[in-house]
């Protein structure tokens, strides 16, 4: 059976850039464009030439892409001016792009209040803008702003706007739920009515997520006839964001009701790169990835309950709606006080420890995990500390060094400029292969000072930790009051690009931090192949 083609339009770099706190430098935009082009996205809307120096520079030269069509965004010409006498329109028309997307008012209320134009003047603006784009030899599309609100208020006029663009040769007429207030049943009904006048293979959908229905609205629109979907990576966008292409793409490619009817430009290999792409965007924006994001979140295929883990080991389809590796993710069977032997066996197998399900040490390890989590440890989020705990019980962790003691101090004193400043100092005493070592360091806070002192001199093991660095530090107070128990989670990384998390628990935050730091250094030595003493 021949499948229909769906076209994917990414507006991360334009609409997504309206997210609070998000800004893209031109180098970052080029990096995102390359990643989107690499997985098979059809259109990449990279910005609004003339609106800011970054976008103007980006569209100032041609960009060679493999398959994606670089798209410039703009507005329809202003009422009372010709297309040739509208500087904003001319800037977009001369941009070095493959396609043009113009936003047009389609709600009669906005035409009157926002534009201060007549309804006929707005229709003329749409016609002349599309005519100019087509005459420039560019694939032209109209983004019908507030289309669903406009259609509810005045269906004849909203439809007239869409038809005007289509009749002048627009390749796509995109129906936009600009304020994100439409619901799936409304989208399906209105799209079905529009397809009576405009073929579905010329219609697109651009939903916002203010009701949490953007992905559902996009799928409803596809079911009703549209063949282009506009969205953003990780659902970026103003207010609550846009439809999340990272959720939509796997649904379209893996769910039978869409997979069997439609095809997209995203290859299977591109789909397997989706998790990496999603996390790379967060890295560029210096944001923490959503651990519970559908398909790509680190917890998207994580199972904690022991009975579920047993079922997954026998048949992954029992609790996984798609194979995690299809989207570049991986299964996680979490070790916790709620997990059973199946979780432990799966995690031990993952880290390369082969243990029989009848091995009595397995029961002891499970009891140890539950006892420790009872006092505050959380191994489901600290896999490195769990691995060390398991290997210590199994006798496979070398004693690289012994901690003989540590001390921290915080002092308010005058610095060299004569100003009062807080100085934090740490002293760490270790024994490494029979040699006593003491290191002193100052840091930006007592934990940073401890970290620097611990890693300052490990004797023969120093070369193995040269690229070790602390990348994240989280503290959680488990019980209230002045005698509260504190849990510290530390994320570390090295030049290999890998990262790992360790945990420490104590009534003393410095002690809890030091436990996590020691585990981090020990884990780094073990994974670096440092020789046992």
UniProtKB/TrEMBL annotation:
A Pfam family annotated for this UniProt entry: LeuA_dimer
PROSITE patterns named in the record: AIPM_HOMOCIT_SYNTH_1, AIPM_HOMOCIT_SYNTH_2, PYR_CT
Keyword Nucleotide-binding: no
Catalytic activity as recorded in UniProt: pyruvate + acetyl-CoA + H2O = (3R)-citramalate + CoA + H(+)
The keyword Amino-acid biosynthesis is assigned to this record: yes
Top EC class for this record: transferase
Keywords: Amino-acid biosynthesis, Branched-chain amino acid biosynthesis, Isoleucine biosynthesis, Transferase
Pathway: Amino-acid biosynthesis; L-isoleucine biosynthesis; 2-oxobutanoate from pyruvate: step 1/3
Domain Pyruvate carboxyltransferase: 6-272
Listed EC numbers: 2.3.3.21
Family: Belongs to the alpha-IPM synthase/homocitrate synthase family.
Name under which the protein is recorded: Citramalate synthase
Gene: cimA
């Amino acid at each position: 059976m021949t499948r229909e083609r769906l076209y994917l339009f990414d507006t991360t770099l334009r609409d997504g850039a309206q997210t609070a706190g998000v800004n893209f430098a031109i180098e970052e935009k080029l990096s995102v464009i390359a990643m989107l082009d690499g997985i098979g996205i059809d259109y990449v809307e990279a910005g609004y030439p003339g609106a800011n120096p970054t976008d103007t520079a980006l569209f100032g030269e041609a960009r060679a892409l493999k398959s994606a069509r670089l798209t410039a965004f703009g507005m329809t010409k202003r009422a009372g001016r010709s297309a040739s006498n509208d500087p904003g329109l001319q800037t977009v028309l001369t941009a070095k792009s493959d396609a043009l997307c113009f936003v047009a008012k389609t709600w009669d209320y906005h035409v009157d209040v926002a534009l201060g134009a007549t309804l006929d003047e707005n229709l003329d603006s749409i016609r002349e803008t599309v005519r100019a784009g087509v005459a420039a030899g560019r694939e032209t599309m109209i983004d019908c702003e507030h289309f669903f609100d406009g259609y509810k208020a005045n269906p004849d006029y909203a439809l007239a706007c869409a038809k005007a663009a289509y009749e002048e040769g627009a390749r796509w007429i995109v129906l936009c739920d600009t304020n994100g207030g439409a619901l799936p049943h409304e989208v399906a009904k209105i799209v079905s009515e529009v397809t009576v006048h405009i073929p579905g293979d010329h219609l697109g959908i651009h939903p916002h997520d203010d009701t949490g229905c953007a992905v559902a609205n996009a799928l409803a629109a596809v079911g009703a006839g549209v063949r282009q979907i506009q969205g953003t990576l990780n659902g970026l966008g103003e207010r609550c964001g846009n439809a999340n292409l990272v959720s939509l793409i796997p649904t379209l490619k893996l769910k039978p009701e869409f997979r069997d009817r439609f095809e997209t430009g995203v290859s299977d290999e591109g789909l397997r790169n989706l998790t990496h792409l999603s996390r790379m965007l967060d890295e560029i924006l210096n944001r923490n990835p959503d651990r519970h994001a559908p398909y790509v979140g680190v917890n998207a295929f994580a199972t904690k309950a022991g009975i579920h883990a047993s079922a997954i080991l026998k048949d992954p389809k029992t609790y996984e709606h798609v194979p995690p590796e299809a989207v570049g993710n991986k299964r996680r069977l979490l070790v916790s006080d709620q997990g059973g032997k199946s979780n432990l066996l799966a995690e031990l197998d993952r880290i390369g420890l082969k243990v029989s399900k009848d091995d009595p040490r397995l029961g002891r390890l499970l009891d140890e995990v539950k006892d420790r989590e009872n006092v505050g440890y959380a191994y489901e989020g600290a896999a490195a500390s769990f691995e060390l705990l398991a290997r210590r019980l199994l006798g496979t962790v070398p004693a690289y060094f012994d901690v003989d003691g540590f001390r921290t101090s915080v002092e308010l004193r005058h610095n060299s400029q004569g100003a009062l400043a807080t100085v934090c100092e740490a002293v760490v005493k270790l024994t490494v292969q029979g040699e006593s070592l003491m290191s002193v360091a100052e840091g930006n806070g007592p934990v940073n000072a401890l970290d620097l002192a611990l890693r300052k001199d490990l004797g023969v093991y120093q070369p193995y930790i040269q690229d070790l660095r602390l990348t994240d530090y989280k503290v959680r107070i488990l019980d209230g009051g002045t005698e509260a128990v504190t849990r510290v989670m530390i994320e570390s990384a090295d030049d290999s690009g890998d990262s790992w998390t360790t945990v420490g628990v104590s009534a003393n935050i410095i002690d809890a931090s030091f436990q996590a730091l020691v585990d981090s250094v020990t884990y780094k030595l073990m994974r670096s192949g440092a020789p046992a003493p």
